[in-house]
Each structure stands twice: as structure tokens, then as C-alpha cells.
Amino acid sequence: MWILGGAVTVIVGWAVALVLVDERHHRLPDRYTLPAAGGALAGALLTEPAVALGGVAWAAFHLPGRGIGGGDVKLALSLGTLAAAAGGVGAVILAVLTASAVTVGRGVVTRAEVVPHGPSMLVGALIAVLSGVMAGVTCHS
After folding, report:
1. Alpha carbon of 67 to those of 27, 46, 91: distances in Å?
2. Under a CB-based contact definition with an 8 Å cutoff, are residues 114 and 67 in contact?
3. CB under 8 Å, gap of 24 or more: what pairs does 52-57 form?
4. Which of 42, 57, 95, 97 is 20 to 30 A distant from 65 in Cα terms?
5. What's the pLDDT score for residue 2?
6. Domain limits of the chain?
7. Which of 33, 32, 16 is CA-nearest to residue 119?
């Protein structure tokens, strides 16, 4: 059980670091996003390849976006894979829609011209994962 607690601690620390950096510098550095994307995709491909499609789908959704940086695309790979593992396609859709709504809402409330999207993506993924876990949804049949 302590391994799970350690993993949660690492993930929360990673997420907090991402939020702090993105809020301050409006970018998500490769040193934070590449290892997570690579690890999520490798883990998915080794255990349940279909789950990787969630990450690829969220990343592809961000490719044509204005104001979306490469860090957001790489973060989408890891978070989309995680959401798909926790709740299937519905969780990925929920994560994407929630992240978009949070970013737009922050922009409206703060009237800021630039709103970092990474923190919203983390919120969307968290809500999607918790929803999938609570619903008992899995990506396998």
C-alpha cells in the first residue's frame, strides 16, 4: 500500500510543479512533460495498447489550437492516456471538455489575454479520473 502512496505523492508533486511553472512562465518545459508522456505511452503500449489512443486523441485535438504550445500537446499525451485508463473514451472527452471550460472560464473571470492551459488540463484529467474510478469504469470489456 505504501507504494501507491509514494506514487500519488510523486504525481501530486509533478502536477504542482507543472502548475507553478505554467502560471509563472506560460510554458510547460520538456523536462516535465516528455518523461510523463513517454512513460504513460510506454506503460499503455506494454499493458493495454488501446489506452494510448486516449493520449494520442487529446494531443491531436490540441495540434491545430491557437495559443496551445508543445508542452500542452505533450501533457495531453500523458493525461489523455491516464484518463482513458481510468474511464475509457468518456473520461477522455470529459477531461478535454472540462479543461477547455476551465481555461475559458479563467479567461472570462480574470479578463486576462493569456491564460495557461496546463493547470486546466490537470483539473480536467483529475475530474475525469475520479469520475471513472467512482463509476467503476474500465477500458477493458
Report:
1. 11, 33, 24
2. yes
3. 52/81, 52/84, 53/84, 54/80, 54/81, 54/82, 54/83, 54/84, 54/85, 54/88, 54/89, 54/91, 54/92, 55/79, 55/80, 55/81, 55/82, 55/84, 56/80, 57/92
4. 42
5. 56
6. 2-135
7. 16
- The Cα 102–Cα 76 span in angstroms is 15
Nine-digit cell string for 118: 496546463
Q: Look at residue 141 and tell me whether its pLDDT is greater than 50.
A: no
Q: What is the pTM of this model?
A: 0.89
Picking from 39, 52, 127, the residue whose alpha carbon sits closest to that of residue 85 is 52
Residue type (1 letter), 74: K
Question: In this structure, what C-alpha cell is assigned to residue 97?
Answer: 471538455
> pLDDT, tens digit, for every residue of 61-113?
888 767 788 999 999 999 999 999 999 999 999 999 999 999 999 999 999 98
SS3 string, the chain, reads: CHHHHHHHHHHHHHHHHHHHHHHHHCCCCHHHHHHHHHHHHHHHHHHCHHHHHHHHHHHHHHCCCCCCCHHHHHHHHHHHHHHHHHHHHHHHHHHHHHHHHHHHHHHHHHCCCCCCCHHHHHHHHHHHHHHHHHHCCCCCC
